[in-house]
Description:
Layout lengths: L10 E10 L4 E3 L11 H8 L3 E3 L7 H15 L9 E5 L10 H9 L5 E5 L5 H14 L6 E8 L17 E11 L8 E4 L7 E5 L16 E5 L1 H22 L9 E4 L4 H10 L7 E2 L3 H4 L6 H12 L7 E8 L3 E8 L6
Parallel strand pairs: 4-5, 4-6, 11-12, 11-13
Antiparallel strand pairs: 1-7, 2-3, 6-7, 8-14, 9-10, 13-14
Helix pairs in contact: 2-3, 5-6
Amino acid sequence: MAIKFSTPTQNARILSVGAYRPPRVVPNSELVERIDSSDEWIQQRTGIQTRHWAAEDESVTDMAVKASRIAIERAGLTPQDIDTIIFATITYPYQTPSASTEVALQLEIKNAAAFDVGAACAGFSYSLGLANDMLRSGSAKYVLVIGAEKISDFLDLDDRATSFIFADGAGAVVVGPSDEVRIGATLSGSDVENRDAIAMIPSWTAYKPGSAITETAWPVIHQEGQKVFRWAVYEIAKVGKEVIASSGLTPADIAAFIPHQANERIIDSLAKSMDLPDSVVIARDIRTTGNTSAASIPLAMDALLAEHPELHGKNALLIGFGAGLVYAGQVVELPPQPK
Ligand SMILES: CC(C)(COP(=O)(O)OP(=O)(O)OC[C@H]1O[C@@H](n2cnc3c(N)ncnc32)[C@H](O)[C@@H]1OP(=O)(O)O)[C@@H](O)C(=O)NCCC(=O)NCCS
């Protein structure tokens, strides 16, 4: 007997975006002393002026719930309409149960499919691709895609390569049915030879990912800054070009570029290498938000739409890249202006 695939296929779109930034603003001046740096050096090398850090008693899921409520309301839905929750994060401190189930509990979403995605700074783009594919295969109708991080819990404030880069926040989008294709195919991949270039490791040892943990120690994030920088600049530009072409578009069809907010010099270099026309509005949320890993693209999307309401409904290129090293990108139509 042949297996039947009975769910109807449907196109998908981003219906809405919501964001939450914790109130505490941390300027560079608060961090420089411990790493023998300066506000000027940090701004020149990364573009970062300030970032937000969550309060001690504010969890990554608390922030995610706040961003999700806004996204769901802007979509004109209630939490009970959500049938799938995908939560991209690397800073939820429990292996199980998942962060997505905690969001379901707090928002009183019943019976939803719920799972977490661990693809670091590419996590949001991976998750958005999954949401799109789930709608296209008929296995979901309204998907809440969350990117949220509390990286301040995993920072070594004496580390000159990371302490000033990473930050906290949450972003969420609701993906739902669409009459036309409004999310292009996701291109994703990895460069595992550089797997150790960014890693969250116990601070006291040269722990190698994959080996047994014999003692417990709180992990902190480490990175080989130059290696990551070179990889991002050379490899991700190629990915971006391919993403645009695979959506049947040219750079002239793109209105906004919303890459992972890793470093403003990487953002500028990518835009140049991909020959994006000057008319493309580039997200530079990094300046006041820092690098929030999986949260950075939805946070940057929300900020860009607030600053440029004319971009609602226009095409944007999204690309996430980071620890793994992994990447994922897609062209999307930005959500319509909330009613
Ligand atoms: C982290 C990063 C800003 C460091 O900048 P860099 O130019 O590569 O720094 P280097 O380690 O090569 O050091 C260059 C010089 O700056 C100094 N330096 C390094 N860190 C410093 C700091 N935090 N403050 C001040 N000076 C610093 C070094 O001592 C060195 O000085 P020297 O030339 O006198 O020897 C940069 O590598 C980077 O942004 N990488 C990408 C990181 C990223 O985006 N990660 C997330 C990906 S998801």
